[in-house]
Amino acid sequence: MNIGVDIKALHRGKAGIAVYIAKTLDKLQEIDTRNNYFLFEKNLSSYRIFNPRWKRVVVPSGLPGTLWLMLNLPRCFARYAIDVFWGPEQIGPCVLPSRGVTMVSTVLDVAVKRCPRTMQRTNYFINRIFLGKSIRRSRKILTISQTIKNDICEFYPAHGVRDKVTVTYPGKPNWTVPDRADQVRGDHLLFVGSFEPRKNLFNLLKALLICKTEKQRKIFLRIVGPGGWKNSAIRRFIDKSGLASQVSFTGYVDDASLLREFSSCRAFVYPSLYEGFGLPVLESLIANTTVLTSRGTAMEEIAGGCSLLFDPHNPRDMAEKILSVYGTDFNPEVFLTNRQKVLDNYSWESTARQTLAILTEAYQRS
User: Fold this and answer.
1) Nearest residue to 146 via CA among 359, 339, 302
2) Are residues 101 and 191 in the same domain?
3) What is the pLDDT of residue 14?
4) E strand or H helix at 336, and its extent?
5) 71 and 141 co-located in one domain
6) Which tens digit of pLDDT belongs to each residue from 178-225?
7) Beta strands per DSSP E along 179-321
8) Whole-angstrom Cα distance, residue 119 to residue 133?
9) What is the residue-averaged pLDDT of the chain?
10) Do 269 and 309 touch, CB atoms closer than 8 A?
11) Residues 18 and 167 in one domain
C-alpha cells in the first residue's frame, strides 16, 4: 500500500498540530515495515526520515497552503501511485477528483461551528468552505476526542459520519519529572496556551479580580505561550482592572522550561471554552500538578476525574474553585491519586497503531 501524507504543517514549527503529525509519523516509521509512505510538503521541513520505505516529496508552489493542498497536491497522486492519502491537518484535498485514491482525514475540532468568533479570519473561512467537503470526501475520519466526534456527528449529520469517525487520542509527552520531594512550588497559578479568545482568559481575569476585591486574596498568574490573536481588549482589561502587577507573560518556552513551569506552580488553570484535546492537562498531570479546567469540554474527558472543574462561563464559580486550591484543607492528592492510570491511556505508539489500522481499513474497503 502506498500512503501519502500531507506534512506541510511541519515547516511551520512546534504548534500542536505539528507535534501531533511528527510524533505519529515517528512511531509509524518504527512499527510499519510493509507499506510505502510519501510525505508531501510545500516547503522543505526538518522532519527526519529513518525508515527506508519512506520518501519525502517537496511540491513547490507559490500558492498558499490550503490552495496548494487543493490544487497542486492531487496532481502528484498518480505519479506516486498513491492508494491512501491521509490529511492530518483538519481538511484534505476535496476540490479536484482523485480517482483511485482513498481519503482519510483527521478532524481536530469543529470550532468553525462551535465558536467561530474566536477564530482567525483566514482559518475561519478555510474551515467554513472546505471542512464539510473534506468530511464528505473522506472514507474514514480520525478525531482526537469523543467530544469532537460528537460535534462532527452533530454539525455534519448529512455526511453519514457516525460510522466512519474513530477517536484516536494523541499521546503524552515523554518527560522525566523530578521526584515530588524535590519540587519547590510557588504560590502562583499557571496558564499554558495561545493568548486568544477561545482560551477564555477574560473570564479567568474576572475571576482573579473577584478573588482580589471580594475575598481580599491577591493571586498571581503566569501565562506561558505565544502571543495569539484578538486579545487587545483583554490586555486593556488587565491594565484598567489593576491586575497588571499580578499577571506575567513568558511567551513561548521549550519543553524543559515548560516542565519547570508546571512543576513550580501552585496549580494549573485551563479555562478554555473549547479544545479538540487539551494537551496541557496531561502535561500538568505528568508534573504532579493540580488541574483546574472547564466542565463539559474535552479537558474533562481527557483528565478522567483528575481535575477540579468549573463553569467556564461563570467567573464567580471559577473564583470559588481557584480559592479552594489555596484553602488550608485542600489536598491535591484527592485529584492526583489516579493520575498515572489516566496517563497510561495516552501513548504515541497507540496513536500510530490505531492510525495505521484506520488507513488499512479504508484501503480494504475501497
Assistant:
1) 302
2) no
3) 62
4) helix 333-336
5) yes
6) 776 567 899 999 999 999 999 999 999 999 999 999 999 999 999 999
7) 189-192, 221-224, 247-251, 267-270, 291-294, 308-310
8) 20
9) 94
10) no
11) yes
Is 10 in contact with 41 (CB distance < 8 Å)?
yes
- Structurally, how many domains does the chain consist of? 2
* Cα–Cα dist 152/163, whole Å: 11
- Whole-angstrom CA distances from 343 to 221, 235, 339, 347, 361 are 26, 35, 6, 8, 28
The H-assigned helical ranges of 138-272 are: 146-155, 201-213, 232-241, 255-264
- pLDDT tens, position by position, 327-339: 999 999 999 999 9
* Domain assignment of residue 354, given as a range: 2-171+347-364
Cβ atoms of residues 105 and 32 within 8 Å: no
Task: Quote the Cα angle for 352-271-341, to 5°.
Answer: 45
Tell me the average pLDDT across 230-248.
92
Which residue in the block uniquely carries the three cell numbers 505539528?
A: 18
- Other residues' Cβ atoms within 10 Å of the Cβ of residue 161: 20
CA gap 132, 129 in Å, rounded: 7
| Residues 159 and 209 reside in one and the same domain | no
Please name the helix (run of DSSP H) or strand (run of DSSP E) that holds residue 58, with its range, or none. strand 54-58
What pTM was computed for the model? 0.94
Cα angle 133-136-139, degrees, rounded to a multiple of 5: 130
Measured CA distances, 151 to 87, 115, 145, 199, 226 (Å)? 19, 12, 10, 19, 27
Length of the chain: 366
Say how far apart CA 19 and CA 276 lie, in whole Å: 14
Residue 110's domain is classified under what CATH number?
A: 3.40.50.2000
User: Are both 237 and 101 inside the same structural domain?
Assistant: no
